[in-house]
Fold this sequence. Notes:
This protein is an alpha+beta fold. The chain contains 11 helices and 6 strands. It is flat, with a radius of gyration of 26 Å.
Amino acid sequence: MTRQEKRLWAAVIVLFVCVVVMVSIDFIRKPMQTAGAGAGVATTGWSKPVAFIDGKSISEEEWVEALKQRYGHDVLIDMLNHKAVYAEAKRLNIHVTAEEVRQELDRLMSGYPSEQDYYEEMQNELGLSRAEVAAQTEYQLLLDKIATNGIKVSDSEIDRYLKDHADDFKAKKTMNIAMIKVREESEAESILQQLANGADFGKLASQYSIDEFSNEQGGKLGEIEEDDPFVPSPILKAAEKLDVGGIEGPIRLEDGFAVIQLQGIHISNPGTEDEIRAAVRKQLAMDKAISESELEEQLRNKFQATIVDDTPKS
Length: 314
């Protein structure tokens, strides 16, 4: 995972927490405001149950208060960071276009079988919609532009980097492989016969495979580079000879036998020469820049961010 991808994952987790807390607080405030309107008095005792255990309830007010106590400071800092970054971008006349967001999302999706798979993982693992992922991507790009504003990278620096890291910019082939691993060759032969008779590969993997990493995923090993050192070479060599959808086995392993299916092939596009040089220029500039957290702190101070109370009462 690259430096930018690590930053995005960390950032979307924070964003997810922010969404949970702020939506929960909104649920609290709206009924209270509605109840108070017209009556001319503030309502403070609203406590809708959200869960029950051992005959006792947990109110939504208690739930939200716990969320605020645990995450309130981080949420507030994140809100201040966003306001400071957008204020600085406006001051510097720095913008991020929809096309730039699209290109960055395409880059982030490059390790996934499809765009749908990427967004499903964002939704399932972090609860983020497409719009929320796009918004956080825009923020990260804006932060990068501010961080690298005024930093110079020479053509000779780019040339040297490309020479030293030539392999990083070659097209790479990855294979989407599924595997059923068993102890005995006779078991592998039996599985091959079932597959020939129309059995579903994923169901057989869940039923028979002794590989704990993949059996619950229908045997899926994920996207694997053709020279992946962590995958047994007999599996890689067998997969190389298959067309998508093809099955091969039994494959002898050190501790058993495998039947594999090639479920997809992806060949990365390193981009045009201009795109590659632009990416390297940005990377080298980021290496010279201060860290993201330092920049956000500087901007908060610059725009006189002041926290009056980071654990507000419901």
